[in-house]
Amino acid sequence: MVLRRTLTRRSLLLGAAAGFVASRARPGRASAGYPFTLGLASGNPTADGIVPWTRLAPEPLSPDPSHPGGMAPIAAPVRWEIADDPAMRRVIRQGVADAEPQFAHSVHVELAGLEPARDYWYRFTVGDAASPIGHTRTAPSRTATTGRLRFAFASCANYEHGYFSAYRHLAAEMPELVLFLGDYIYESVSQSPRRVRSHSDGVETTDLRTYRNRHAQYKTDPDLQLLHAAAPCLAIWDDHEVQNDYADRWAVNFADPAAFLVRRAAAYRAFWEHMPLPRSALPNGPDATIHGRFDFSDLVSFLLLDGRQYRSRLACDTGPRGGAKQLVDAACPERLDPRRSYLGMAQEAWLYDQFRSGSAGWNVVAQQQMMTEFKQLESGAVTHWSDDWNGYPAARHRLLSQMRDTGLANPVVIGGDIHSFFANDLKLDFDDPRAPAIASELIGSSITSVGPPHGKFVAWVADNPHIRFFESRRRGYVSVDLRPSRMEVAFRVVANVRDADSDAATLQRFVVEAGRPGPLPA
Ligand code: FE
Ligand code: CA
Questions:
Q1: Looking at the domain that runs over 139-521, which CATH code has it been given?
Q2: I need a surface site. Which of 169, 288, 315, 436 has the fewest CB within 10 A?
Q3: pLDDT for residue 327
């Protein structure tokens, strides 16, 4: 396999150990340390473009706020090259980008004019120091006919809960595209003696320096570096990129929404700095646009959503909650209020426009959380989790109605957040077991994050017949092999997140047949 020759964990480590010979003549040099400690990545593949990314960080966890990543506050030129062969003998494009201190010396190269559906390899150099070689791939042209796309999705990678073996096994599958659906980092810190690793600075992230260092620590992980070097990605955030269970400007322990927005601005900024995103996703203060549509020929459109930034305040949230449980029952009629939105009314309107104008054979709605109804029986009362789509049933009903009314072809909703595998039918009437499925839903587990109580959830699932599969005890990701006539899905699991060299296996396969909503065990 090409990747194996050009990039392995060993070669990454050797690259780091080989060091970086300083040259005093070069302007912008801030440190003699190897600058590519965070690896590289590529994202936002289109039919003619891709965004390669890196960040210079010779001291990735530097506590010095005036030298993020150990870099002096001056711009540093970074050479980038892109080639059409894995050894990079045929460089087809190259240039120099300035790694600017205001963006933590990150580099986002917005390449255009590439060929559709082509493999490319890329690397960065500063002086004598070279990054590893990364592999990426452009999308097929929107008007092309493509017989197949192999993609995968992942979420919830708490560094403290385990090793990222799942990322390594996903990299070995060489998917053409990886979707990160949120909780790519966690803001919190654990004091649990069960934690496998520690967030380096030992404090919850609250400002630009601490969010940058958290992202940097994750990017130092060799398995995550392998995955980013293997495949291009699309990334959306969930709550933990900022703070647990926030909704727009309301958050757990902030009495003042304006104060929370200052924190959100820092979190969004650090996310942009560390992800292969274009300039159009650069936050303006606490606002940033990460939702969008990505077409892969006539086969599939990916509709990426932002379920955090614009959502209505959690139902019956009377504020600072201190992370208490959020099960609401019939005593909370606000949950049903049709004026409340999970996506915000503007993003909803945008999404329904995409439904109307879409022409692909499959439509994958890539978002943060579980959309299906999940009734949870607590002390004899039906309750709903207020932080996911169950807290916004009117918005969910609008979305599913629009899917039906626009005749959207083969809608499949994918999500994460709940640290469990689910395969569900999405229906307009969840109370009628005979009501037809409008769409299929697949929920990935977590890369490492601990799942919810299995026995309790199994009992609840029994009251939700539209839930066809549930497993909260295993960690992993979801691999998808998509063809015009069928989607083949594999729920992939690692043996043990406490083992850095853990094996992986397939837990369960599903098939979604074109024209027949609802995942079927295979
Ligand atoms: Fe999570
Ligand atoms: Ca989450």
A1: 3.60.21.70
A2: 436
A3: 85
